[in-house]
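[step 3/7] fold_predict: job queued, chain A
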Amino acid sequence: MHRDVDSLYQSLKGIMEGREGKVEVVDRERFIKGLDDLVREGVFNPEREVRGHARWIIRSAALSDGIHPSSIIDLYDAMGREEVGGFTVPAINIRGLTYDMARAVFRAAMEGEVGAFIFEIARSEMGYTDQSPSEYSAVIMAAALREGFRGPVFIQGDHFQVKRDRFKGDREVEIEELKALIRRSIASGFYNIDIDASTLVDLEKKGLVEQQRDNFEITALFTDYIRSVEPEGITITIGGEIGEVGGKNSTPEELRAFMDGYLSSLGKGVKGLSKISVQTGTTHGGVVLPDGSIARVKIDFDTLERLSKIARKEYGLAGCVQHGASTLPDEAFHLFPEKGTAEIHLATAFQNMVYDDPSFPHDLREEIYSYLKEKHRGEWKEGETEEQFIYKTRKKAFGPFKKRFWDLPEAYREGLRERLKDRFLFLFEKLKVFGTKEIVDRWVKPLPTRIDLQGEIENS
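[step 4/7] structure written:
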C-alpha cells in the first residue's frame, strides 16, 4: 500500500501523465499490468486521499479508453415505443469479489457481443458488503479496463429503499438520508436509479389509490429531486416499484393506481419513470428449505406479461422489472423475454457460486459460518435449521471478510472468473441479449463526463 498520494503517482511515472486534471495513459501495457494493484489501492488503502486519487485515476483512465458510465434511458424509451425489444436486460448485483465477478461479466459480454447489461448494488447491500458507490463504480471501471471492454457501462442504484419504520418515525430525516445517497451515487457514475417506496404501501387502507399514495408521492418526490441534481446532458434512468418483493402478487389495478397517482404528483414537465418493478411470486434469495436447498418457485408469468404490456402501451415504459430471479430453475429464464419483461435482477446465485464451490477454502468457510452464528444469532428464527440460517445470513459476511475474499489465491479466483463467465453466458443467451452491443451503440450515445477529484476523496 502506498503511504501517500505522492508515492502513488511516483509509481505511475512513465505510465500515465496528468494529475488533478486530465489523465493520459502513455504506456497502456504497463498500466493494465499494474491495474490489479491500483484497484486494491482504491479499495483497501487506509488513507482516504490515496483511495480517492486511485479511484479518480481508474475512472479517468476508463473514460480516456472509451469506457463511459451511461444512462440506459434512450434504449428503454425505444423499448417503451416498441421500436426495439425481444430481450430482457440483466441487472447483476455483486456483493463480494467485485473486481473478479465484474471481470467475468465483461468477458461474457465481449464473447457474446452483449451491450444491454447492468451492474447494480442496493442501498442495503452497500452497508453489509462495505461497498460505497464510489468504490463500486471504480472497481467496475477497473474490471472493464482489465478485460479490454469498451462502450457504455450501466451502473445502477438498486432498491434505493425508503425504510418504513424510519419514515414513519421521522419522515424528513429518512428523505434527506436517501437524497444524500442519491447525490453520492450520481457523482460516482450511477446514472440509473431504482427508487423503492413500495415499503410504504399500506394494504389496510381502503382503495388502491390510498394504499399506494405514500408510494407514488414519495417516488415522485425523489424523481423530481434526481432531475434537479443529475449532471448536465445526462437523463438518469429511474425505476419505481408497486409491490414489495416477497409480498402478494401485483395486479393491473395496482399498477394503474400507482402510475396515475405518480404522474399527477410529478413536477410539471419532469421526465418520469422508465420501468416498474412488480411482484410475481419470487423472494430475494429464494425460499430456503430446511436442508439449505432452494424451493422451486412458480412465477406468475401471465401476470408479468400482462403488466408489462400495460406499462408499455398505457404509460410508455420499457416494461416491468422482475426481482429475486437468480435462483430460479434454468428452464425459466427464456420466458422473461418471451413475456416482454424489460429487466431482471440477479444476485444470490452468484454469491452461492462462491460459497458452494468445492475449491473454496474450507477453513475460511467454517470461520465465516462461525462468525455468522455468533454475530447474527438474533436473526436465527425459531424452527429454522442451521442450514437455513446460514444461507439467509451469509451475504452479510462479504463486508467483514472483504479483504480475505480479495486475497484468495489467484488460481482460485481465475477459476471462479471462468465459471462465472460461463454462467453469465448462459443467462445472456436465455435472456436474448446476445448481439445487443450494436443495439446499445445505436441508441446510447456516451456524453462527456467530468470526474471530480475532490468528490472522489470525500466519498472514499
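[step 5/7] annotate
The radius of gyration is 21 Å.
The longest strand covers residues 151-161.
exit 0
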